[in-house]
Backbone:
């Protein structure tokens, strides 16, 4: 692609470029002046807001391209038109539904035209694909961003508003595609039409670019993997318990029976009938045998939920430390308890209370 200035282009393209800029500057000057009136600014505010609205995007573009003087400074008619728009807005109070309609549609037209001229100027100076698109976007939206910042507002292009950047990107792509095909003049015509239609769809159909703060697919995927790992770990423990030696399971069962017998004797001494105490103990033991696979779960800390609900980044690194080799597993802890009669009695008491509450 041959690098050339805008004025060295085909006369038709040059004319389209020039009039797109001229119309946009005047209209955006009027829109900026009207917004200054709504904020209660004086005539100085009118001029500044009109200048930011109508020339800010082009200034950003020309500064980034860095080829010669900024167009708004080297061609004073741009400033004259921006200030003319401010003066018109100062003497004519544009308001009501009609003006809102004109403003929204006029803004869409101007943004479409400027996206085209921004991409065109980048093409003229031989910039690559992505910078050409950026110049179209900056030209179309840069003025409104500077205006909003100067007025103390969040730039509208950042929020959940009518899309302006996406139509500008589409326009720039059409212009670039037409240039590659050798039909640049058609691209300058079709690009703004595509951009305008997309912006109107946003206005008429309520199309918005979503802005969900909680959307984080990496975090969601990691949390899901952790949940699945937790389930796999639980299944593995269940299989391990089924594969435990029969002798070990029998020892645990005998230890529980001895503890229950001691409890029966204590209840008899406390005045309870032996048959009734034995019946309660047998019912508990039957239930315990059915749920023995879950005994380890009763002892383990209930950490599964907290480990998966707040997935994030551990800056201190504590969560990445490996567990101590001396820390006993749940089944080892259970065996230690059953090896001590006093601890076993306390375990039985707690399980019996839990069993009785469940029956209630």
Residues:
């Amino acid at each position: 692609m041959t690098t050339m200035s805008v004025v060295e282009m085909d006369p038709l393209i040059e004319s389209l470029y020039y009039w797109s800029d001229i119309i946009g500057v005047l209209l955006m000057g009027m829109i900026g002046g009207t917004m200054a009136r709504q904020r209660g600014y004086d005539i100085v505010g009118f001029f500044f807001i009109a200048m930011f609205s109508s020339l800010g995007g082009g200034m950003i573009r020309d500064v980034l391209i860095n080829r010669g003087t900024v167009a708004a400074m080297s061609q004073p008619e741009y400033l004259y038109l921006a200030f003319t728009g401010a003066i018109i807005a100062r003497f004519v109070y544009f308001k009501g539904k009609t003006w809102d309609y004109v403003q929204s549609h006029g803004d869409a037209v101007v943004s479409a035209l400027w996206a085209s001229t921004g991409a065109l100027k980048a093409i003229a100076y031989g910039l690559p694909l992505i910078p050409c698109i950026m110049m179209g976007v900056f030209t179309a939206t840069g003025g409104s961003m500077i205006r909003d910042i100067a007025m103390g507002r969040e730039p509208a292009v950042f929020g959940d508003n009518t899309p302006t950047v996406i139509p500008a990107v589409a326009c720039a792509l059409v212009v670039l595609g037409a240039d590659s095909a050798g039909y640049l003049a058609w691209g300058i015509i079709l690009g703004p039409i595509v951009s305008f239609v997309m912006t109107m769809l946003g206005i008429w159909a309520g199309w918005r670019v979503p802005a969900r703060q909680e959307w984080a697919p990496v975090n969601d995927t990691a949390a899901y993997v952790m949940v699945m790992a937790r389930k796999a770990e639980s299944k593995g423990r269940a299989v391990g318990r089924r594969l435990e030696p029969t002798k070990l399971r029998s020892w645990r069962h005998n230890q529980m029976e001895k503890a229950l017998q001691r409890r029966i004797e204590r209840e008899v001494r406390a005045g309870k009938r032996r048959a009734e105490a034995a019946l309660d103990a047998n019912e508990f033991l039957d239930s315990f045998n059915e749920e023995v696979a879950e005994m380890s779960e009763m002892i383990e800390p209930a950490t599964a939920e907290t480990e998966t609900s707040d997935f994030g980044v551990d800056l201190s690194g504590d969560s990445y430390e490996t567990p101590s080799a001396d820390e006993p597993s749940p089944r080892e802890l259970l065996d230690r308890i059953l090896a001590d009669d006093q601890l076993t009695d306390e375990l039985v008491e707690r399980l019996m209370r839990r069993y009785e509450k469940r029956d209630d």
Remarks:
- The longest helix spans residues 96-124.
- The chain has two domains: 11-212, 244-299+329-359.
- Confidence is low (pLDDT under 50) at residues 1-8, 296-317.
